[in-house]
Amino acid sequence: MISRIKRLQNAVKDRNLEAVGITSRPNTFYLSGFDGSASIIIVTAEKQLFATDFRYIEYASELCGGFYKVTLMTSTADAFLIEKISEMGIEKIGFEEENVSQGRFSGWSDKLPSVKFIPMQTEIDKLRIVKDAEEIKKLQVAVTLGDNAFSHILKFIKPGISENEIAAELEFFMRKNGASAPSFETIVASGKRSSLPHGHAGNKIIESGDPVTMDFGALVNGYCSDMTRTVFAGKPEQKMKDIYNIVLKAQLESEAAVKSGKTGIEIDKISRDIIYGAGYEGCYGHGLGHGVGIEVHENPRLSTKSTHTLEKGMIVTVEPGIYVKNYGGVRIEDMVAVTDGAPYVFTNSIKELIIL
Known about the structure:
The chain is α+β, with helices and mostly antiparallel strands. It has helices at 2-14, 25-32, 57-64, 77-87, 102-111, 121-129, 133-154, 163-176, 238-256, 264-277, and strands at residues 19-22, 40-44, 48-52, 69-72, 92-95, 116-119, 181-182, 187-190, 210-216, 218-220, 223-224, 227-233, 289-291, 298-302, 315-318, 321-324, 328-331, 334-337, 344-345. Strands 4-3-2-1-5-6 form a 6-stranded mixed β-sheet, sandwiched between helices. It is elongated and about 70 Å long.
């Protein structure tokens, strides 16, 4: 944590600020390891203060006491922040503008009219965009649990069960085997519903020949996994097989091109050229991928608009898809780490067409 705090302190100095206030849970966790629901971090060029309420003070003192001055909030987080800014004589402080509501910001500025609150989201987010070795190990644990859940669910899927049953079984398996929660609401979309890119599980019953798209992940030790596979509950139509193989080709070729120095636009274009070239323009409306870490959607992005240049240590998904309205769809997704050469693929689950 010390190195992360030092990098934030350098960002404070670079912006000629006196301090930065951290109020969002993801960034609090990144800078302290604290996963409770109430906290404030104030970092200056030389000091760092962590505050929480009575429910968490003992836990936080043990967890963060080695690198923060840990103190008890006897009022609300906002009241504490206002009090400390006044007490420390701070006149310019950075804050996470994308994580603070207008109402909350107005409360700060009304009470501290002479203090300048400087947006600092970009600098704070940059701290998390490249993962360190410890983070990569944690991500691999989460991804491996997702792989194991996929192997388990292949024995469970059959005609006659519902999408909700599949989602529940996936989430139960992940929790039973170490996840504190799913990374996000599990997506299970079958039959014609598989044309919905984010078709959350419903009461639809799996029928013979249905494609079953599952997009799911595990939250383990504060880090997320994210994977998608489409399988078939019985022999699919030839058109659906063809769609599957087009998506697989797009996924493999774009994934292989992920490396440092490439832009998100360049990688996305590889998948899009394959899918559009096969006649499915208009059936692939989302970006190729996104960063994953403490949150399931982070920077960088792989998309038609992403100018992010990939760097070694960034973690991204590669997830092209084809979605044909009133017919069905296919998506295949892995998580990969950017290197200076071939990408490191975290996800090990089989990608060849599976007929159950």
